[in-house]
Amino acid sequence: MSLQDPVVDATAPLAPYDPRYDPLVARTPGRGTEYAPTYWVDTAGAPPPDDGPVQGDIDADVVIVGAGFTGLSTALFLAREHGIRAVVLEANRTAWGCTSRNGGQGQNASGRLYRSQWIERWGKSTALRLDAEIREGFETFRSLVEEIPECEPQPGGHLYIAHREHKLDFLRNETRVMRDVFGYDARMLSAQEVREQYVGDVECFGAQHEPDGIGVHPLRLAHGYHRRARALGAKIHTASPVTGFAARDGVYHLQTPGGVVRARAVGFATGGYTSFGLHPSLDAKVMPILSNSLVTRPLTDAEIEATGFRTHQVITDTRTLRYYYRLLPDRRIQIGSRSAITGADAPNPRHMAVLVDGLHRKFPALKGIDVDYSWWGWVDVSHDMMPRVAQPDTHESVFYALGYGGNGVSFSAHAGRRLAERIAGKRGADLDLPIYRSALDYPFLFNNIGLPQSRWFAPVRRLGQQVLYHWYHARDERR
Fold first, then answer.
1. Which of 202, 268, 412, 476 lies at a CB distance of 3.0 to 4.6 Å from 408, suitable for a disulfide?
2. Is residue 373 part of a domain?
3. Is 422 inside any structural domain?
4. Statement: the pTM of the whole predicted model exceeds 0.85
């Protein structure tokens, strides 16, 4: 992509929300596009003031691309811990992408691998060090949540429900590993204990409970990051997509519709909304996966009793294409799971029907309940199911943090902190960990078979994803 791309009028009105947006085929995520119609957007209140679109050329020490959890926390920690006032460039509006479309589940995790898989892949010594880093990451998240009480934190832990009896052995093993190897107070619960103490999910055959887990209102949390970063001097320019990138004499030139932003260092924090051509180190390095979510009307007292909700803790089940759900502070249920393969197919009602069917199977008393909100969004999945906070080329001051695989609500805070350290030139011992020492590779479906990595190859990548989905579903639902 060159700096010769046409300059667009930066004062153009906001664009309507596009439910068919697809990062594998779209050139950019838009400019000034309205939010998806999520429960979080409807209940967060007005977005905090920002610095508007870029209008004219700007010089900056550091530019962060993307104003979601990661970009905002990076700007916050750059200012708070390193005295660096970053310029944040956001294509649309603050927290427009993953950050305002998730389930608000903060867990002591990152990526999609379990701790037993860390041991298998890297050995016990590295797994212990990685656990210490992820655990510190959860504390980073917890401390920010405590600063921002308006995000409606729901602490208490995480309930991991065995949706089939044959999943109990898996949960028992993971609980043993968490207790004996990593020292967590994780414990197994019988189906009866789950019903009596937590929730009446009729698919439950037992569960693992771990003490670390916090549900949040994600958009209110992001607004808190935003306010604090700007109060410390960060500039947040919305409706300012990066349409060109070039390096000249050690200075990076980022073209936006309203002007060129020049910086000595750049951090990319674009998650599942990373467009092809944004930067060569990012092209085809994550697989964007759609996730659906819905929120019901508030439950009555009788429905609370019938569903057995005795907790507001975050809950997931053991499906590969998992359901994640919880009871919100206003007594609504939020539930999410897999969605369409492509953006073009995302609005098809059959994908939302998967969620409605899951809700009904777990809680038969809620058949026919009104759904007040439904939406979908893109999740960034890396080739090895783990995130990266990396400097892909040590000769360039270009960095990124992404690839959370659906576990970014909590770890994105710490990823922002580590990304800020990298940009500021701090090099700690944690750099030797797998999530920091290597760059992203090509997606897990095609990383070593020499297939073309471009947006024109998206249909083949999606075909592989579709095959995997059928296999996962068949495996998940067997008795």
1. 412
2. yes
3. no
4. yes
For the record, the structure tokens of 137 come out as: 């990451």
How far, in Å, CA of 464 to CA of 358, rounded? Answer: 25
Q: Kindly give the pairing relationship between strand 105-107 and strand 58-65.
A: unpaired
Closest by alpha carbon to 234, among 60, 53, 37?
60
The parent domain of residue 189 ranges over: 154-214+288-380
Which residue in this structure is represented by tokens 């400019």? 31
The domain spanning residue 359 has which CATH number?
Answer: 3.30.9.10
382-428 tens-digit pLDDT: 989 999 999 999 999 999 999 999 999 999 999 999 999 999 999 77
